[in-house]
């Protein structure tokens, strides 16, 4: 029988107060709990700190890139080049793409569930079909088998190869202390994490 509590060998995370809160709200006692006298202006004798950690409401931030065209004196019209990451009239940015890829490949959520979370939690609705797709071979094979068990199948060899590449990338960055969200965001920006080159 499994004992209650955290499984043996699993790291724990203690919830601790921060030194400086983002928002401070003071709560004053109005009257004395003993005699009922008003306490306005009376000396303060102490202050107990209680912190509530929560997330703000999340909404997508839309950046519009306007490619200006200008006509030269020679008559030729030249349009500004689109910046990296703005190749289409509308597309998801690197952070939204990373948030979609991570739960699918890292936590094995089904595409439909990932799409639902993106819309419900992050306010970025997407169709399941838009979810984007240097470790030991044994681990990668085991992860593939788990993906097949959870999702039912690898629908194509290309899908299996993409899964292994992404899974390997995430596992490698994790070993080097880089979280999956930062690692995938950098990859979506075209600057994937790379190990430091050994110097002679």
Give a description of the structure:
This protein is mainly alpha-helical. The chain has a domain of 95 residues. Helix 1 crosses helix 5 and helix 3 packs across helix 4. The termini are far apart. About 8% of the residues have low confidence.
DSSP strand tally: 2
Shape designation? extended
Strand content: under 5%
Number of helices in the DSSP assignment = 5
Order of helical and strand elements: EEHHHHH
**What is the average of the pLDDT values?**
80
Beginning-to-end CA distance, first to last residue:
54 Å
> What helical percentage do the residues reach?
25-40%
Low-confidence stretches: 134-150
CA-atom Rg in angstroms: 26 Å
| Main sheet record | 2 strands, antiparallel
Structural class, by secondary structure, is: mainly alpha
List the strand order in the largest sheet.
1-2
Topology overview:
Layout: E1 69-71, E2 77-79, H1 94-105, H2 111-120, H3 137-151, H4 157-175, H5 180-188
Antiparallel strand pairs: 1-2
Summarize the structure.
By secondary structure, the chain is an all-alpha fold. It has five helices and two strands; from the N terminus they run ββααααα.
């Amino acid at each position: 029988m499994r004992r209650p509590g955290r499984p043996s060998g699993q790291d724990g995370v203690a919830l601790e107060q921060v030194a400086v809160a983002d928002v401070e709200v003071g709560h004053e006692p109005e009257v004395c709990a003993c005699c009922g006298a008003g306490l306005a202006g009376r000396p303060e004798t102490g202050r107990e700190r209680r912190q509530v950690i929560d997330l703000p409401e999340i909404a997508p931030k839309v950046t519009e890139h306007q490619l200006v065209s200008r006509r030269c004196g020679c008559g030729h019209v030249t349009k500004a080049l689109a910046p990296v990451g703005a190749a289409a009239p509308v597309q998801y940015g690197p952070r939204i793409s990373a948030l979609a890829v991570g739960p699918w490949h890292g936590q094995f959520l089904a595409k439909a569930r990932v799409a639902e979370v993106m819309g419900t939690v992050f306010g970025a609705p997407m169709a399941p079909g838009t979810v984007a797709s240097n470790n030991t071979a044994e681990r990668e094979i085991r992860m593939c088998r788990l993906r097949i068990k959870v999702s039912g199948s690898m629908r194509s060899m290309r899908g299996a190869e993409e899964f292994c590449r992404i899974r390997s990338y995430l596992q490698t960055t994790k070993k080097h202390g880089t979280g999956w969200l930062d690692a995938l965001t950098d990859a979506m920006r075209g600057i994937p994490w790379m190990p430091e080159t050994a110097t002679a």
